[in-house]
Amino acid sequence: MATITVYDKKSKRSAEPDDLTDLIGPDKHTVWVDMLGPNDDDLALLRDVFKFHPLSIEDTRNHWQRGKVDEYADYLFTILNPVEWGTNRPVFRELDIFIGCNYVVTVHRGDEPLLANVQERIERLSTMPTSGFLLYAILDIVVDGYFPVLDQLQEQIEDLGDQVLAEPSQKMLNQLFDMKKTLVDMWRILWPQRDIPNKIMHHDLPFLDEDALTHYLRDVSDHLMWIAEMVNTFRDTLTGTLDLYMSAVSNRLNVVVNRLTIVTVLIGLLTVISGFYGMNFNDTWPPFGTVWGVPFVLALMIGLVTGLLLLFKKLDWL
User: Fold this and answer.
1) CATH, domain 2-248, list 3.40.50.2000, 3.10.129.10, 3.40.50.300, 3.30.460.20
2) Please, which residues bridge with residue 58 across strands?
């Protein structure tokens, strides 16, 4: 289903698909066609009215693609990947954009809330937006959507670091690996998008006023570079957290082994003393017949155990 908005110098209005043939052309209105789907009627518009290449039309039907820019004779085709924070992880979408002499066509499978923000920004302008400025506004708002996700990722990584220091567990290790996979996926999506503003600026197309857009697109490019650097920083931080987890687990294992060693030494000591009296000696000391013999041996065991425990505590083994 296509929604068509026509921008004049000081107003905007809606239009029908049958009006597109008269609306498309240089030195006319700026037309924004937003397609949800696309369905068969939308594909017919892309093919018969806009005359888009079959390969770019096919890309609108094959979703979950990464960002790119393709140049054709009289239009540009761009794929962006908006993001939002889902259930403890970022969720990426695909937004396909065609930009021509006086039109922009956006295609997306589900609802795209970022486009409402683009509408609000366009309505605040005092002049008619060009197709190039529409493309910039969409690109800028898509990139701005990454910053809240980065904040959520940073908070999760910091929480995981604190938990690793407090009490490492197998569940936490699974969370660390899930986070690492999330950052790898985010980097794979960000990497091709970093070059999109630069590629747009270097295309010598008559319908793009490069002088007017250069500073805007350069700002978006700087934001994308900063986002990519932050993702790299998060990956390094997460790698350090994984190393910290392994060290914490190793330290806990050492503590357990030390305590088991202490218990073994104490049990061995008691076994030696008690085993001595189980041997077939005719005479022993204290003699078996004395009243104080058994209490003396028990006191000896308690004294030796207490002495070893004090020694281990002094050596910081406990």
Assistant:
1) 3.30.460.20
2) none
